[in-house]
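Hi R.,

Here's the input for the magnesium ion complex you asked about:
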Amino acid sequence: MHETTVTGENTSPGESRTLRGLGVSPGAAAGPVCRMAGPPRLPDPATVPPDDRAAELRTAERALRETSAALSALAAKAAEPAAREILEAQSLIAADPGLSDMVGDNVGAGMTAAHAIAAACAHHREALLAVGGYIAERAADLDDIGNRAIAAALGLPMPGVPDPGHPFVLVAEDLSPADTATLDPAMVLALVTEKGGPTSHTAILARARGLPAVVACPDAAALEDGEMVAVDGVLGEVRTAVGEDEAAAIRRRAAGERERLQASGGPGRTADGHPVKLLLNIGSAADLESGFSAEGVGLFRTEFLFLDRREAPGLDEQVAAYEAVFRALPGDRVIVRTLDAGTDKPLPFLTLPDEINPALGIRGLRVDRVRPGVLDTQLDAIAAAARSSGVRPWVMAPMVTTVAEATAFARMARARGITDVGAMVEVPAAALRADRLLAELDFLSIGTNDLSQYTCAADRQHGELADLLDPWQPALLRLIAECAAAGERAGKPVGVCGEAAADPLLAAVLVGLGVTSLSMSAPGIPAVRESLAGRTLEECREAARSALEADDPAEARRSLRGDH
Ligand code: PEP
Ligand code: MG
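And here is the predicted structure with magnesium ion in place:
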């Protein structure tokens, strides 16, 4: 379904080729490719003759110095505090005398600079792994430092997000959350990755930053540095051999479209005036500065405050972070989601044991079973920020599965004076018991990213299973319908805050199913607003009926295109 296709018989240089992947963040961009270098390959080991060892040692020491300096420069530029902290720590490790002493010993024994660095890093890595727990999680840092220093010793480009000094289209095999956090939005025009899926955190962060992105595009492996490409984040296409004039025209059009959409505003409504709140998904107060108008925050992902931290942020730091969001709020609603740790959002300070099946393990609200206290502090901080800012936040827990969990969470939140308590519906068991959950709670918010993964048993990061993660899957829509109907019966709000809410056509279906709010990354809001404004509520209901009747996502989409 999502295979890469190459159009045109002749693919010699100068011929335009179209590579196809999955468009996961809308928008168009054009510019030169800059590839993210992968880890360097070590050459075969060789013994350095004694007379050459002093020069080899200078190479190794220079490589470590350059690595430390590069990491510290990245830290200085990192926008997110969590990314800054991890990069600063890595820079210190690269400059650590213990590491350089061991590298020196290895060179003294006849190893090349690259092998001496590799062996020293492997030694320290083993030592960290032997300690276990939280310390062992730092082993990945040493891999990163080692790869950078080996590349420097071999005269190869350093792995990590490149910095060519001009705007570029970033092409990579895949991006880690830390890579994505160090992206400079003034320089990166678009993202293209060979791997990744529609609900991966790379995709979510790209949308949050308004960066056009195409993932699951295996032929991107053949793109070369400097090649001019045009990226279409809606169609999921990357076109090569784009001329300078055309690239400039694409950039002008994209800027014009962005301005037009940014200028649109007003509350979400169907053509006949049925209100549907359009809300923002954010990770911090900085995400409220996008300039897109919205009616509040439908999903405040608080774990971004905790990501890559060596220690849990304390009560005061949390109060300040929540207050910053409450005070900068557009509209009158904010829904705070309590910490959603585990699986694709590992939080080192929790020192959770490795699991064979982390997506089915201790994650989300379940962390409270094994690390009690973290959730209590967070709820204390949310309640304190509510009091000091005068804002009344709605608070929900991720990964709620049973009525007992919902009841326990509601008790904890209400004990602190939080009046509007809800749950995310991300597990089919919760959707099937929506009536009973709503007897305990004030609202539900459907997380379609995880609900897709658990409904179709397909890892949300799995590029090759992207068709199963398609939010138009009729089985997923049926679960959403269950929740929305339960909300209507109880007279309580049921929103959608997964990325499905940002698909303008699907948004109409969701409203037809009875969903009362749609929450998404800021750049998605204007197109959803336009789509709802073009349909009556009855047309949305008709669209929902056809989508539920469809056999597969393609038929569901076709049925809606016929309707309008
Ligand atoms: C979801 O699962 O749909 C969701 C919104 O949560 P996250 O993407 O943060 O897991
Ligand atoms: Mg989720």
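One thing worth noting: The longest helix spans residues 53-77.

Cheers,
M.
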